[in-house]
């Protein structure tokens, strides 16, 4: 609109078959005043630019007759990555050039004219190559023309979208651009209808049987009436059965429907953590992916901004960015991008960095189109599953469910067989009674099957994940909650996780002079200036830091010029703050340095600078820029020991240089060690001047370092400028959190890229390292050199120790060597992401726990207790390269603040505050999930045992259960559903972290749980049997079976039903505790949901007994006060009974302990007498 004055911009829309509908306007009707007479110009250029990628894919899909998917688009995406993309882009731009050239707002028409010529040349050459194939050789002139054309294409993509690389777009244009070009947000997945969820719920086998049974009962009762007999309410029992099923279906469907909304909330929460760095109004800011619009200038790098959220055109630098397009193409080969290349959404930056302009967003981008079609597909599964069917919890639950199912089937068969034999063969009942016998059998089966168990699991996981969200843990997969409860090892990063990620430069060594600022109230920059450092020296330092930092690392200044915030890499931000405190303007330095600036001529920005981005392997970053006197200057920063090994000279205070001597190296190493002992991260600074005429292509050649690792030729023979010590204080809550981990039986290991002494200092402050890990040499020095063997390893030594060369000469992992190291290992310094992966893999695969001899030796000699099962590993990570380790670990934690999108995608849980204490919170909630399910199992199985025994006794004695089918359904299907919600909502207690993790092979049903279940079930059965057989005489009521035989509902059986329910209700309170606690009411008021459900259940039971005469098979008029007193009194008796069970179980444990101790003493005396060895 700004360029062409278009009043109406037709938009392309995606129709149902995924192809583009709508037609781009005519490109030729642009007048010389830049005014479109038919809504073309910019509209045409942008429309084709946006749709070109998808249109090509759609056409290919249309020809193949298949849907748009990975297989059919692989070749097209390969084409779009190369010359065809530039051809499409150039073709599009060519059509809008006349309007752009003639526009009066253009700053440099001559530039556009030259660009026009270059692009037309490129288009002609590409078309010629398509027809005749590529020429054998490019002449230097042709190669230069191609390069200019690519640069011009990228530049004009920005121009036509009215967005400059240095200023970006204006915030005032955002809504207009979103309206014209579309939003980058993809519509939420379409929800399943409530009716569909009801249909899925009714597929349950037991529910189907109950429906059939209800229908049969209605038919039999209405069709077998005697002559002259009226039906009346004979249909109500069957109808009540169907209504019970309906309620269960509605409850299940409602929960599933709520889960869908929970998934949408989770998705939106995840999207809110996906941020990118863009330029708007000349300011580098962070925005979430959904807010990116066409025309935004996007900064990406392989370090922490790797994922591409929209289709873009690369602006620069030339050859500085390599992309991984395997998610779209399936090809693992990295693609080098040049200015003018299209960078597709859904791909990731694997090496380097770049600046690009967004040309297509949302459903108009390649990844957006695919995502939209996946969301529309019927078989799309969301990420919010109830859990992994192979997780330890679900394996155990499956086993329990199968065992209960078999027992229930056997009990149902016995009940049916006994009723038939006794009723039909012995008592001579009519054949029509088969229906009631069948009702009894199916009811027994329905009671035996733990219908509430899946609901309890879902509710426990969902409740925990929602509460964890409030405590800064965003759970992506529900089963991650449970898995975290089993964690035995946490491998944690340092920066931002153990530390506050508030980095500040506190020490500086420059020109071999040390500046250590001891006063926390004084800024290092002010201190250095007060100490009289050379202005020329500080200018060089400012230039080095300002140039050799990433674009997205910026400072935000207030109106008075004070720093009020930062964006980007925290370490680089600390360096920029030092530059600011020294009185320099880093932004001005960037903008006025050729090769680094994005000001002025676009071609200068795109071609003159050379950047070598940071990688975990090189542990350094470099940036080459032209010098005014000719040649280049290469600025470098990185790990001090890496840079120092590359230096051959050192800078002096008078700006001269001299050869680096051993004394100079010792000064730098001593200061670096001093910084590290104080817990500071130590960075080295250096530079190298390259003479005029130096072949810049050679800079990317590699050579071997003294340690055998590869290095760029450019990053050798450096001049050492100095060191910077950056302080990142430990989070105050971390030592206590790590102490909780040790009390909970969870090992904590620090895995960091920092040097050994910095890592050891932080680990000791945090409590990961303790006094017993150091040799007692009388100096009390807690340094790396004073640690015991294998407690701390550097990444290089670690790799050499756990990898061996096989017969084929290939390096392979040696588990035996790993097992000798890992029990002692507490700190892994100077580690790489591959080391994290190796550590996670080795811990997962270790079977050391099975070697009892080694475990006893470790406990005796080193006081190291090995967990008696496979290690369950939690791993933290924030970088793109951490993703494999996060996937390999049992639970991957990604950093929500500093983490990359790739790391977040690979993780199971996202730490929204990057805080280690939040990991401990996750462990507590994970254990609470396990405990909540145990509580429900204890409750459910007690009900099942009592109800099944009662039904079986009734079948043998009276050929009918004293508890009617509808009453048992109320107890089992409805009340248990409420109980599952009540017990699943129990908040965690600190005592959960005062015991070791749950062994994967341990049964969910502990001995104490069995004692509680059988103790309470025995009490309930005794009460019910007493009421069943002695109740009529004691209470003066007619026996229930006699009244029932006359077709009436008895007070006797109603009393049994009411008493049974109240015993179950009071036992629900008992089931809140699993460890034999005396006060079962402790903390009950902190769970209002539990209290509310208990009250609601009791109220419903009262209504059923008093008013549910026919529907629930209770006596007319309900029960009198005496009967209610008996019911509630017997129910309350469950509370003292539980205390008796606790006492008896405690005495049994004490007896077994004394007996086992006697056996061990006898065995040890035999060992001493026979072998003279220590007792085992």
Topology, element by element:
Layout: E1 13-14, E2 20-21, H1 42-64, H2 70-80, H3 83-102, H4 109-132, H5 140-160, H6 174-181, H7 194-201, H8 205-223, H9 236-272, E3 275-280, E4 283-288, E5 297-301, E6 311-316, E7 321-324, H10 326-329, E8 334-337, E9 342-343, E10 348-360, H11 366-376, H12 392-426, H13 434-448, H14 452-470, E11 473-475, H15 479-485, E12 489-492, E13 504-510, E14 513-516, H16 524-530, H17 535-547, E15 554-557, E16 563-567, H18 570-581, H19 586-591, H20 602-607, E17 610-612, E18 620-626, E19 632-639, H21 640-646, E20 647-651, E21 657-659, H22 662-677, E22 681-690, E23 702-704, E24 710-712, E25 718-727, H23 734-743, E26 747-751, H24 756-766, E27 792-794, H25 795-802, E28 803-805, E29 811-813, H26 815-821, E30 827-829, H27 833-845, H28 852-862, E31 873-877, H29 883-888, E32 891-895, H30 901-906, E33 909-911, H31 916-958, H32 965-984, H33 1007-1029, H34 1031-1035, H35 1040-1045, H36 1051-1070, H37 1088-1107, H38 1121-1132, H39 1134-1171
Parallel strand pairs: 12-26, 12-31, 20-25, 26-30, 27-30, 31-32, 32-33
Antiparallel strand pairs: 1-2, 3-4, 3-5, 5-10, 6-9, 6-10, 7-8, 7-10, 11-33, 13-14, 13-25, 15-16, 17-18, 18-19, 19-22, 20-21, 22-25, 23-24, 28-29
Helix pairs in contact: 1-2, 1-3, 3-4, 3-5, 4-5, 7-9, 8-9, 8-13, 9-32, 12-13, 12-31, 13-31, 13-32, 14-31, 14-32, 15-31, 17-18, 22-24, 31-32, 31-33, 32-37, 33-36, 33-39, 36-37, 36-38
Characterize this entry briefly.
The protein is built from 39 helices and 33 strands. By secondary structure, the chain is α+β, with helices and mostly antiparallel strands.
């Amino acid at each position: 609109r700004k360029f062409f004055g278009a009043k109406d911009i037709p938009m392309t829309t995606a129709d149902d078959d995924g192809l583009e509908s709508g037609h781009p306007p005519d490109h030729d009707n642009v007048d010389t005043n830049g005014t479109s007479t038919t809504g073309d110009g910019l509209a045409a250029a942008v429309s084709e630019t946006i749709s070109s990628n998808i249109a090509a894919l759609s056409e290919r899909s249309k020809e193949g007759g298949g849907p748009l998917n990975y297989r059919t688009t692989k070749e097209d995406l390969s084409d779009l990555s190369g010359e065809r993309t530039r051809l499409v882009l150039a073709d599009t731009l060519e059509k809008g050039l006349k309007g752009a050239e003639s526009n009066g707002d253009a700053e440099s028409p001559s530039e556009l004219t030259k660009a026009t010529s270059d692009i037309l040349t490129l288009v002609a050459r590409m078309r010629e190559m398509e027809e005749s194939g590529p020429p054998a050789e490019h002449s230097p002139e042709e190669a230069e023309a191609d390069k200019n054309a690519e640069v011009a294409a990228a530049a004009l993509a920005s121009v036509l979208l009215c967005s400059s690389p240095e200023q970006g777009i204006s915030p005032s244009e955002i809504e207009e651009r979103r309206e014209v070009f579309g939003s980058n947000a993809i519509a939420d997945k379409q929800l399943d209808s409530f009716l569909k969820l009801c249909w899925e719920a009714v597929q349950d086998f037991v529910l189907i049987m109950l429906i059939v049974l209800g229908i049969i009962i209605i038919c039999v009762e209405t069709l077998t009436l005697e002559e002259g007999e009226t039906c009346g309410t004979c249909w109500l029992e069957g109808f009540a059965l169907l209504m019970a099923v309906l309620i269960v279906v509605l409850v299940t469907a409602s929960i599933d429907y709520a889960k869908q909304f929970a998934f949408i909330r989770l998705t939106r929460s995840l999207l809110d953590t996906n941020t990118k760095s863009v330029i708007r109004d000349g300011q580098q800011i962070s925005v979430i992916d959904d807010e990116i619009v066409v025309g935004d200038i996007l900064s990406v790098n392989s370090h922490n901004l790797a994922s591409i959220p929209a289709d873009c055109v690369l602006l620069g630098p030339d050859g500085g960015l390599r992309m991984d397009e395997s998610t779209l193409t399936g090809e693992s080969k990295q693609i080098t991008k040049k200015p003018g290349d299209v960078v597709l959404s859904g791909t990731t930056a694997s090496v380097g960095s770049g600046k690009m302009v967004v040309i297509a967003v949302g459903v108009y981008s390649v990844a957006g189109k695919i995502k939209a079609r996946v969301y529309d597909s019927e078989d799309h599964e969301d990420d919010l599953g109830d859990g992994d069917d192979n997780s330890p919890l679900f394996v155990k639950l499956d086993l329990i469910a199968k065992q209960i199912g078999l027992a229930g089937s056997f009990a149902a068969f016995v009940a049916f067989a006994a009723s038939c034999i006794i009723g039909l063969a012995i008592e001579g009942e009519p054949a029509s009674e088969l229906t009631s016998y069948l009702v009894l059998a199916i009811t027994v089966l329905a009671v035996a099957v733990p219908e509430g168990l899946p609901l309890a699991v879902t509710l426990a996981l969902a409740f925990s994940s929602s509460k964890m969200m409030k405590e800064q843990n965003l759970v992506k997969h529900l089963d991650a909650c449970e898995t975290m409860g089993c964690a035995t090892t946490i491998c944690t990063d340092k920066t931002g996780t153990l530390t506050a990620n508030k980095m500040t430069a506190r020490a500086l060594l420059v020109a071999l002079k040390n500046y250590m600022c001891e006063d926390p109230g004084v800024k290092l920059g002010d201190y250095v200036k007060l100490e009289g450092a050379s202005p020329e020296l500080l200018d060089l330092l400012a230039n080095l830091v300002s140039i050799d930092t990433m674009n997205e690392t910026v400072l935000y200044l207030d109106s008075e010029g004070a720093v009020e915030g930062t964006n980007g890499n925290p370490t680089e931000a600390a360096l920029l703050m030092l530059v600011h405190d020294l009185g320099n303007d880093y932004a001005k330095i960037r903008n006025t340095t050729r090769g680094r600036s994005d000001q002025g001529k676009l071609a200068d920005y795109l071609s003159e600078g050379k950047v070598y981005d940071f990688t975990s392997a090189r542990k350094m970053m470099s940036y080459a820029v032209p010098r005014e006197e000719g040649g280049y200057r290469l600025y470098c920063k990185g790990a001090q020991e890496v840079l120092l090994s590359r230096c051959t000279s050192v800078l002096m205070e008078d700006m001269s240089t001299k050869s680096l001597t051993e004394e100079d190296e010792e000064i730098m190493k001593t200061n670096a060690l001093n910084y590290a002992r104080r817990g500071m991260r130590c960075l080295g600074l250096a530079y190298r001047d390259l003479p005029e005429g130096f072949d810049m292509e050679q800079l990317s050649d590699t050579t071997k370092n003294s340690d055998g690792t590869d290095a760029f030729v450019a990053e050798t023979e450096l001049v050492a400028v100095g060191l910077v010590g950056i302080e990142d204080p430990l989070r105050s809550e971390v030592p206590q959190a790590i102490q909780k981990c040790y009390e909970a039986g969870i090992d904590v290991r620090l895995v960091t890229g920092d040097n050994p002494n910095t890592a050891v200092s932080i680990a000791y402050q945090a409590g990961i390292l303790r006094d017993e890990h150091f040799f007692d040499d009388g100096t009390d020095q807690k340094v790396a050199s004073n640690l015991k063997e294998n407690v701390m390893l550097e990444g290089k030594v670690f790799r050499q120790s756990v990898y061996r060369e096989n017969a084929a000469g290939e390096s392979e992992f040696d588990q035996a060597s790993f097992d000798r190291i890992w029990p002692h290992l507490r700190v892994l310094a100077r580690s790489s992401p591959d080391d994290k992966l190796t550590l996670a893999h080795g811990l997962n695969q270790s079977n050391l726990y099975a070697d009892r001899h080694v475990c006893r030796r470790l406990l005796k000699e080193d006081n190291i207790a090995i967990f008696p099962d496979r290690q369950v590993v939690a791993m933290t990570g924030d970088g793109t390269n951490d993703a494999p380790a996060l996937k390999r670990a049992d639970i991957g934690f990604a950093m929500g603040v500093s983490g990359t999108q790739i790391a977040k995608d690979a993780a199971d849980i996202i730490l929204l505050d990057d805080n280690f204490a939040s990991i401990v919170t996750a462990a507590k909630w994970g254990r609470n999930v396990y405990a909540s399910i145990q509580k429900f199992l204890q409750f459910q199985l007690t009900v099942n045992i009592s109800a099944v025994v009662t039904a079986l006794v009734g079948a043998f004695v009276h050929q009918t259960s004293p508890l009617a089918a509808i009453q048992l359904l109320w107890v089992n299907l409805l009340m248990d559903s409420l109980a599952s919600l009540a017990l699943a909502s129990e908040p965690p207690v600190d005592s959960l972290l005062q015991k070791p993790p749950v062994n994967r092979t341990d049964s969910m049903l502990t001995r104490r749980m069995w004692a509680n279940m059988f103790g309470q079930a025995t009490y309930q059965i005794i009460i019910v049997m007493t009421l069943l057989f002695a109740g009529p005489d004691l209470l003066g009521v007619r026996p229930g079976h006699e009244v029932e035989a006359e077709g009436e509902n008895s007070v006797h059986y109603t009393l049994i039903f009411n008493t049974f329910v109240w015993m179950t209700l009071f036992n629900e309170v008992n089931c809140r505790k699993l460890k034999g606690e005396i006060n079962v009411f402790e903390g009950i008021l902190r769970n209002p949901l539990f209290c509310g459900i208990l009250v609601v259940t009791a109220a419903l039971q009262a209504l059923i007994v008093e008013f549910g005469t026919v529907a629930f098979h209770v006596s007319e008029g309900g029960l009198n006060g005496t009967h209610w007193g008996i019911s509630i009194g017997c129910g309350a008796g469950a509370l003292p009974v539980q205390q008796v069970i606790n006492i008896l179980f405690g005495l049994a444990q004490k007896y077994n302990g004394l007996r086992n101790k006697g056996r061990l003493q006898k065995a040890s005396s035999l060992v001493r007498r026979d072998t003279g060895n220590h007792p085992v």
